[in-house]
Specification:
There is one protein chain. This protein is an alpha+beta fold. Helix content is 32%, strand content 26%. The two termini are 14 Å apart.
Length: 97
């Protein structure tokens, strides 16, 4: 990753997809600001204004909003290289080596 991205995650502490997204960021050494919308009403209102929804997680990367957690899309936004491992002539799998 060549430049430091500003990352915010609007989340619920108990929601499995939010936990998965935060683990992904931590595993890839991406600093982020966690805003727990279950505890912080102001953060919840900010999330709804930016995303137009109440679903979590909402991930903001340099002002760009990503709805839910999609690892491939988040890697692209963060500039994390996708590595391809070939298993056979027909199958290819994307991994983070």
């Amino acid at each position: 990753m060549s430049e430091q991205k500003q990352v915010k995650i609007y989340s619920l502490s108990t929601w499995p997809t939010c936990k998965k997204a935060k683990r992904f960021l931590e595993k890839n050494s991406i600093p982020y600001e966690n805003l727990d919308v279950g505890e912080n009403e102001e953060a919840r209102e900010e999330m709804v204004k930016k995303s137009g929804q109440l679903g979590v997680p909402v991930i903001e990367v340099d002002g760009e909003i990503l709805l839910d957690f999609n690892e491939k899309e988040l890697k692209q936004k963060l500039g994390i290289q996708l590595n391809w491992v070939k298993f056979s002539k027909r199958r290819v799998r994307c991994t983070n080596l």
